[in-house]
Design a protein that fits this description.
Layout lengths: L1 E6 L2 E8 L2 E8 L2 E3 L3 H10 L6 H14 L8 H10 L3 E6 L2 H9 L3 E4 L4 H14 L4 H7 L7 H10 L4 E2 H10 L7 H8 L10 H5 L5 H13 L3 E4 L2
Antiparallel strand pairs: 1-5, 2-3, 3-4, 6-7, 6-8
Length: 229
């Protein structure tokens, strides 16, 4: 069996301990304060999709990088983080099956871009930090999206959808969703589709692979994050 892993939720900072702000992981609005091993593992998987071997190698490398030593392996830390919903695991006969299992039930949140903040950050990098203009341009270069990726992002800015529900939108040619009520009305209008079985249904539709590829690419390019409801 093939297995893949990624991080769920987002990172925020709260409070102040000994003059330092504390990181918290936020999943579906619920905050969890991670220990050092958990923080290293979660950050290793953020905007990445890794096999267990890749995760183990990067986890150990990051621990060395921050000069942190403990006896916990990546698999041991990951076990508890999966149970707490901070990490997602996908399993399948092939890596494509594992990828769909990994992402199908997760909700997708687009990253909000603030053009003014980008301009201010660009100016600081060039004039305060003395970074070359060409380097700064690379950091703030505009993401180049395909037509289908743009369609996905347009959908996600209107309503919150899982990966499976996004596949359903393309399968049914439904792109005019505006509210959560319309999601139910247009994506769950038959007598058998539910939030529990839609992932299994969408796995076999012709457009599934293309939509899954687009969503994965948007994630790896740091345009979206995954969450739970």
């Amino acid at each position: 069996m093939k297995k893949l892993y990624t991080a769920v939720g987002g990172l925020q900072f709260r409070g102040n301990i000994a003059g330092k702000r504390c990181p918290v992981l936020v999943v579906n609005g619920n905050e969890t304060t991670p220990n050092m091993s958990e923080m290293i593992l979660w950050s290793t998987l953020y905007w990445q999709i890794l096999t267990e071997d890749e995760l183990e190698a990067q986890f150990e490398a990051k621990k060395k990088e921050v000069n942190y030593a403990d006896s916990m392996s990546a698999s041991a830390v990951m076990f508890w983080m999966i149970r707490r919903g901070l990490i997602e695991e996908g399993i399948g006969d092939t890596y494509e099956d594992a990828l769909y299992d990994l992402l199908s039930r997760l909700y997708i949140t687009p990253i909000e871009v603030n053009p003014l903040l980008d301009v201010v950050s660009f100016v600081r990098m060039v004039f305060r930090d003395k970074l070359p203009v060409e380097y700064a341009k690379q950091v703030f270069r505009r993401d180049k999206r395909t037509d289908s990726e743009r369609q996905i992002m347009k959908l996600l800015h209107k309503v919150k959808l899982t990966t499976a529900e996004t596949v359903r939108c393309f399968d049914r040619d439904v792109f005019d969703l505006q509210t959560e009520d319309e999601v139910v009305e247009k994506l769950y209008q038959d007598d058998y589709t539910t939030s529990e079985n839609i992932a299994d249904e969408m796995r076999i539709v012709p457009c599934c692979r293309a939509v899954l590829t687009d969503i994965s690419n948007l994630y790896l390019r740091k345009q979206i994050v995954f969450d739970r409801m």
